[in-house]
C-alpha cells in the first residue's frame, strides 16, 4: 500500500481476487472501508473496518500513522478506526498487504525478517473466508468471532454470532445449533441441530465399528471382530475401532491349496447399514459374480450388490458405518465366524 488511500482509490490483491476501498452498502449514506471480491457483478463485502462508526464526509483517508498503526481518519473525527497497536521498534518499515485470500496484513520489516503485526483475519466481520479461524487468539487472548450485519445497509454488529465456547458451557457437544428467540415465553427455542447425533460425526466408531444413536453404548463391533483397545472402548473412546478375532481362512492356507480348500471363508450379510467409504466398483451386474470376485481375493473384506448401482467391494478398513433402519442396502462382511 502507498502512504495513504483516499475515497475513490482502491488496493487490489496481487492476483486480482480481492479489492479494498471505500463503499456505501446498498447506496446508504454512510461510508465504510472494506474488502470485497473484485470483478463480481454484485458487490459481496468480506470485511469492514469501521463497522460501528460510518463516515459521513468526503475527506476520509486510510493511512499508516507515524506510530506504525493503520488508521482511518476524517477531518471531522480525527481517528475513526485504528489497529490500536503499541509499537516500540525504531528504524523499521511498516507495510500493508492485501493477500489473495482476502486478508489485510500489517507487516513490520526489519533486518532480514518480516513480522505480522496485525491481520484482518483475526478481526472478522460477517464472513468466514477459507483459512480464517474462529476461537481464541492465544497470542493476544482475544476471541475471534464472526458476527452478522444489523441489516443489508448497516454493517454494525447484528444479532447472530459464530464463536467457540468453553467446554464447561451449556453447549459443549461441538454441534451447530440454530435457535429462535421466543419473546412470549422469554426463552430460546432449539430449531435445528447439526449433526443430529454423535453417529453423524465422521467415523465415530472407527474401523469395523458400527454406530447407532439410540443404543448404549452407541458403538459395537461387527460379528467376528473385537475392540482394538478394550480399555479405550470402555471409556467411550471408540475411534480405534475393531480388529478381526481370527484370520481369514485364505490367509491360513497354502497358496498351493486347491480352490475348494481356500474357499472356506463365508460372508455375513448385514442390512440397514449406511455403506462405508472407499469402495471399489466392479463392472458386473450379477450378484453371484460379485460375491465370487470378493471370495477369490483374500484382500477383499466385504462386498455389496445394490440394484441400480452394481457391485462394490472393499479392500480397506470399513469406515464410518452407521445403522440406519431405512437403509435397504446389505453389506456382506467376509471372514471366519466362530460361534460364541
From TrEMBL:
<dbReference type="InterPro" id="IPR003609">
    <property type="entry name" value="Pan_app"/>
</dbReference>
<protein>
    <submittedName>
        <fullName>G-type lectin S-receptor-like serine/threonine-protein kinase At1g61550</fullName>
    </submittedName>
</protein>
<dbReference type="Pfam" id="PF08276">
    <property type="entry name" value="PAN_2"/>
</dbReference>
<dbReference type="Pfam" id="PF01453">
    <property type="entry name" value="B_lectin"/>
</dbReference>
<keyword id="KW-0325">Glycoprotein</keyword>
<keyword id="KW-0732">Signal</keyword>
<dbReference type="GO" id="GO:0048544">
    <property type="term" value="P:recognition of pollen"/>
</dbReference>
<keyword id="KW-1015">Disulfide bond</keyword>
<feature type="domain" description="Apple">
    <location>
        <begin position="250"/>
        <end position="340"/>
    </location>
</feature>
<dbReference type="InterPro" id="IPR001480">
    <property type="entry name" value="Bulb-type_lectin_dom"/>
</dbReference>
<dbReference type="InterPro" id="IPR000858">
    <property type="entry name" value="S_locus_glycoprot_dom"/>
</dbReference>
<dbReference type="InterPro" id="IPR036426">
    <property type="entry name" value="Bulb-type_lectin_dom_sf"/>
</dbReference>
<dbReference type="Pfam" id="PF00954">
    <property type="entry name" value="S_locus_glycop"/>
</dbReference>
<feature type="domain" description="Bulb-type lectin">
    <location>
        <begin position="1"/>
        <end position="119"/>
    </location>
</feature>
Amino acid at each position: 500500500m502507498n502512504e495513504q488511500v483516499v475515497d475513490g482509490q482502491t488496493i487490489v490483491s496481487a492476483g486480482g481476487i480481492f479489492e479494498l476501498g471505500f463503499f456505501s452498502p446498498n447506496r446508504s449514506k454512510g461510508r465504510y472501508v472494506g474488502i470485497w471480491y473484485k470483478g463480481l457483478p454484485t458487490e459481496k463485502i468480506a470485511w469492514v473496518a469501521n463497522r460501528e462508526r460510518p463516515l459521513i464526509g468526503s475527506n476520509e483517508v486510510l493511512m499508516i500513522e507515524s506510530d506504525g498503526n493503520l488508521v482511518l481518519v476524517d477531518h471531522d473525527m480525527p481517528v475513526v478506526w485504528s489497529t490500536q497497536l503499541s509499537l516500540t521498534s525504531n528504524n523499521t518499515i511498516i507495510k500493508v498487504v492485501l493477500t489473495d485470500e482476502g486478508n489485510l496484513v500489517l507487516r513490520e520489516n526489519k533486518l532480514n525478517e518480516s513480522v505480522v503485526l496485525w491481520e484482518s483475519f483475526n478481526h472478522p466481520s460477517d464472513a468466514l473466508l477459507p483459512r480464517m479461524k474462529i476461537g481464541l487468539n492465544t497470542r493476544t487472548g482475544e476471541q475471534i468471532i464472526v458476527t452478522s450485519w444489523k441489516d443489508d445497509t448497516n454493517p454494525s454488529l447484528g444479532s447472530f454470532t459464530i464463536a467457540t465456547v468453553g467446554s464447561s458451557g451449556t453447549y459443549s457437544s461441538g454441534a451447530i445449533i440454530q435457535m429462535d428467540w421466543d419473546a412470549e415465553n422469554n426463552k430460546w427455542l432449539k430449531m435445528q441441530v447439526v449433526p443430529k447425533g454423535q453417529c453423524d460425526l465422521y467415523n465415530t466408531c472407527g474401523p469395523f465399528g458400527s454406530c447407532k444413536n439410540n443404543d448404549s453404548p452407541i458403538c459395537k463391533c461387527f460379528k467376528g471382530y473385537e475392540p482394538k483397545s478394550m480399555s479405550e472402548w470402555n471409556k467411550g473412546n471408540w475411534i480405534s475401532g475393531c480388529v478381526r478375532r481370527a484370520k481369514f481362512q485364505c490367509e491360513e492356507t497354502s497358496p498351493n491349496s486347491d480352490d475348494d480348500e481356500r474357499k472356506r471363508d463365508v460372508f455375513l450379510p448385514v442390512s440397514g447399514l449406511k455403506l462405508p467409504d472407499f469402495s471399489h466398483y466392479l463392472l458386473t451386474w450379477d450378484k453371484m459374480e460379485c460375491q465370487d470376485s470378493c471370495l477369490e481375493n483374500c484382500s477383499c473384506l466385504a462386498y455389496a450388490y445394490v440394484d441400480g448401482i452394481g457391485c462394490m467391494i472393499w479392500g480397506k478398513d470399513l469406515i464410518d458405518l452407521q445403522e440406519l433402519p431405512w437403509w435397504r442396502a446389505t453389506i456382506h462382511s467376509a471372514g471366519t465366524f466362530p460361534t460364541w
